[in-house]
């Protein structure tokens, strides 16, 4: 079926690599190459420049890539509508999630969703908030799940849960012995932070700016796990979601530094293109997300 070949082409174009695409599609690399070669023969045009390390789309390839995404989305929508006639939820669900949500909240929601709707093919891409926004706008995902303030008037943004941010340190940090700390006690500290573009980093920057704090030194990691491990090893202090550090706080591996007179919270938000068609697999996931969010927040 032509949609199979188009899916191979789109995956190679997104991954920029034949080997990685083959792994994701559970195909052999020669099989992936054959799909692309057949497509080029059918269209009479070269679609990709190939090199050992990278694949780059030609001008014709860029045109096909945009159209192929639309074709596949319409095909999934058609399948979902047809299966709705049999009261089945099927098709595909492609979503992007920022690290805190993707690694600490989404797995629990997906477990419930997969149990209820086993025929839906779910794919999750975890990245920082800025990247998820970019990919939603590019039409790569049905939905995005991100943390923090989102300035995106071109998208539908729906808050589905509150998240508390906590300041943490290693147990032997000089501030760890204090029950609560004044904001001025955070002057000239070493900070461990997420990268620019992360929803978590935005809150670290805001705390430092609002408190008019000077930073002695900072270390930057592109994952919350990296930040957490660095703090546990005594590298510095950090601001992270309570979801990320709750187990380590309970075990005593990390200490919470309560800032006197201050509580920091943020929204966790669902992003959708305003033009995204109402696919049943997506609608049912959103329903599951909102129901689970209430129970997760109550238990937290």
TrEMBL record:
Keywords: DNA-binding, Transcription, Transcription regulation
Residue ranges of every copy of the HTH lysR-type domain listed in the record: 1-58
Signal peptide span: none
DNA-binding recorded as keyword: yes
One Gene Ontology molecular-function label: transcription cis-regulatory region binding
InterPro entries cross-referenced by the UniProt entry: LysR_HTH_N, LysR_subst-bd, WH-like_DNA-bd_sf, WH_DNA-bd_sf
SUPFAM superfamilies, per the entry: Periplasmic binding protein-like II, Winged helix' DNA-binding domain
Family (UniProt): Belongs to the LysR transcriptional regulatory family.
PANTHER family in the cross-refs: HTH-TYPE TRANSCRIPTIONAL REGULATOR (PTHR30126), HTH-TYPE TRANSCRIPTIONAL REGULATOR CYSL (PTHR30126:SF39)
Protein name: LysR family transcriptional regulator
Species lineage: Bacteria, Bacillati, Bacillota, Bacilli, Bacillales
């Amino acid at each position: 079926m032509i949609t199979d070949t188009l899916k191979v082409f789109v995956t190679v174009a997104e991954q920029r690599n034949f080997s990685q695409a083959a792994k994701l599609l559970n195909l052999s690399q020669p099989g992936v190459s054959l799909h692309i070669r057949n497509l080029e023969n059918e269209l009479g045009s070269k679609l990709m420049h190939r090199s050992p390390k990278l694949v780059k789309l030609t001008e014709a390839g860029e045109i096909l890539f945009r159209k192929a995404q639309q074709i596949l989305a319409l095909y999934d929508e058609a399948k979902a509508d047809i299966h709705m006639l049999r009261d089945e939820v099927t098709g595909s669900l492609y979503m992007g999630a920022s690290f805190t949500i993707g690694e600490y909240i989404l797995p629990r929601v997906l477990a419930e969703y997969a149990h209820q709707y086993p025929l839906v093919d779910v794919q999750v891409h975890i990245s920082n908030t800025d990247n998820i926004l970019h990919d939603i706008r590019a039409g790569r995902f049905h939905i995005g799940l991100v943390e923090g303030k989102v300035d995106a008037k071109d998208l539908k943004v729906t808050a589905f849960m509150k998240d508390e941010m906590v300041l943490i340190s290693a147990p032997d940090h000089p501030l760890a012995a204090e029950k609560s700390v004044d904001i001025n006690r955070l002057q000239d500290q070493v900070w461990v932070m997420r990268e620019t573009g992360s929803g978590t980093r935005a809150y670290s920057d805001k705390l430092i700016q609002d408190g008019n704090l000077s930073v002695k030194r900072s270390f930057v990691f592109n994952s919350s796990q990296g930040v957490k491990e660095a703090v546990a090893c005594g590298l510095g202090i950090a601001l992270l979601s309570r979801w990320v550090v709750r187990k380590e706080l309970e075990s005593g591996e990390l200490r919470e530094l309560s800032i006197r007179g201050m509580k920091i919270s943020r929204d966790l938000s669902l992003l959708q293109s305003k033009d995204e068609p109402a696919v049943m697999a997506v609608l049912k996931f959103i329903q599951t997300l909102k129901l689970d969010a209430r129970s997760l927040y109550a238990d937290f």
